[in-house]
Amino acid sequence: MFERTVERAVERGVLRGKVTAIIDSSPVAGAGAVADTYELVRGFIAKLARAAGGLDPDLARRVEPLCGGKPDIDWDDPEARRDHLQELVAVGRALLAAVEGNGDPAVTEPAALLAAVVAQDVEQGPEDPDDPRPRIRRGVAPDRIVSHSDPEMRHGRKSPSRRFDGHKMHVLTDEGSEMVLVCCLINSLTEGEWAGTVWPCGILLGRWRSPRRTNGSWSGG
Length: 221
Fold this sequence. Notes:
Elements: H1 2-11, E1 17-29, H2 37-52, H3 57-63, H4 78-99, H5 105-121, E2 122-123, E3 135-136, E4 154-159, E5 162-174, E6 180-187, H6 194-201, E7 208-209, E8 215-218
Antiparallel strand pairs: 1-5, 1-8, 2-3, 4-5, 5-6, 7-8
């Protein structure tokens, strides 16, 4: 209905020639709980294990304790946390190897998310040559997944000093007619990234030309 309305506006000449587009972006809080690295990896291990089913008995025994609640370790002890992270990464990678080649989307989606979380949040390297265990990555990876219950959520900012977790809604309006041309709910992107996401949304029915940030031309009508 929305795309048909814009199409009719082009056909009737409401949108023709130069269009000055006004884009308004608003934060939308996500519905999922924001999780730390340990919970993210455990959550996606559980999702992938349920989707895959029929795991090797040895792997199933390693996976099963990680699919419940928060493990009973001394979370104030850095060494205990490091050991738990090592277990999570090892089991996660073993699970990914076990489902490799499975083309079922119900399996490939949680597998991709698990692999992404391990890659974005965990690092191994020469920080301590005597301790090869994985560790939490310093800093925040771009486009970081923050929730296993709502994997589309991202960190975002309302302003340089105010952060939120969720999505951003972008509304593109024609200045002359005040007609809404595009409405997109997407992952929270930085201010410099959203334009490249909104403009493709606005290529409705192949009629949008010259995808510049504020001006373009419409054909038809």
